[in-house]
């Protein structure tokens, strides 16, 4: 009889309740049998909030658990709380969709994929340092405006093709070429307000 009574006492029972208050992970729940103190079950991913209607599990020998949040006030914010490391695994596609904003916050963000597509109408990036390593980069812009305080480029070979007009504005300009410098055009005009100096061991004109 003692063993049977113990088994009956440990049989879990279910009850509805309403979250009244939350204090240090303990939930004060109003039920038909009175006020109960409960903790959130590991299977209850949605964090209960005051005013929520919940499903409770309890027996005579163990703690009272909030198994699930059944109803929440309209437009109230929801939080999925996972206390430790977590992995979401899908056998097929996995989509994250938000009607308004989608925010990701982490100490470190790592993304690994064989292919990636980004379609963004407007984007802004603010960071301290950026490092990019790629075998090939292709960029196509209708209009691009780049502003740098200092820019240093180290390039093995550099080819640039401008189909129309190209113009450079600078306070001063200096070009250092180790070997040959070749300039070719239909017409060449050099204009200086003061001096034009051509200095070389051998100078050919004409």
Describe this structure in words.
The protein is mainly beta and 206 residues long. The chain has a domain at 12-71: Nucleic acid-binding proteins (OB fold (Dihydrolipoamide Acetyltransferase, E2P)), CATH 2.40.50.140. Helix content is 4%, strand content 18%. It has a five-stranded mixed barrel with strand order 1-2-3-5-4. Strand 1 and strand 2 form a beta hairpin. The longest helix is centred in the first third of the chain and has 8 residues, at 2-9. The mean pLDDT is 88.
Q: Termini separation (Å)?
A: 121 Å
**Known CATH architecture of the domain at 12-71:** Beta Barrel
Strand count = 5
Strand order of the largest sheet: 1-2-3-5-4
- H-E string: HEEEEE
Give me the number of helical elements.
1
**What is the CATH C level class of the domain at 12-71, in words?**
Mainly Beta
Shape: rod-shaped
Class per helix and strand makeup: mainly beta
Strand content: 15-25%
- Write the CATH homologous superfamily of the domain at 12-71: Nucleic acid-binding proteins
**Mean of residue pLDDT?**
88
What is the fold named in CATH at topology level of the domain at 12-71? OB fold (Dihydrolipoamide Acetyltransferase, E2P)
Helix content: under 10%
Rg over C-alpha atoms, rounded to the nearest angstrom:
35 Å
Instruction: Report the sheet with the most strands, covering strand number, pairing sense and barrel closure.
Output: 5 strands, mixed, barrel
Could you name the ranges where pLDDT drops below 50 across 5 or more consecutive residues?
A: none
């Amino acid at each position: 009889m003692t063993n049977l009574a113990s088994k009956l006492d440990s049989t879990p029972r279910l009850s509805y309740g309403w979250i009244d208050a939350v204090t240090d992970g303990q939930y004060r729940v109003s039920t038909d049998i009175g006020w109960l103190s409960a903790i959130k079950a590991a299977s209850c991913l949605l964090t209960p909030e005051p005013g929520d209607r919940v499903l409770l599990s309890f027996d005579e020998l163990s703690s009272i658990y909030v198994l699930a949040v059944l109803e929440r006030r309209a437009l109230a914010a929801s939080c999925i709380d996972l206390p430790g490391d977590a992995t979401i695994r899908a056998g097929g596609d996995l989509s994250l969709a938000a009607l308004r904003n989608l925010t990701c916050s982490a100490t470190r963000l790592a993304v690994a994929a064989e292919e990636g597509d980004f379609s963004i109408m407007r984007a802004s990036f603010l960071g301290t340092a950026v490092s990019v390593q790629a075998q090939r980069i292709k960029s196509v812009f209708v209009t691009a405006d780049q502003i740098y305080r200092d820019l240093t480029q180290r390039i093995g070979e550099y080819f640039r093709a401008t189909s129309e007009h190209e113009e450079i504005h600078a306070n001063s300009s200096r070009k250092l070429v180790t070997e040959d410098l070749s300039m070719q055009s239909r017409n060449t005009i050099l204009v200086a307000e003061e001096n034009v100096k051509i200095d070389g061991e051998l100078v050919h004109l004409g």
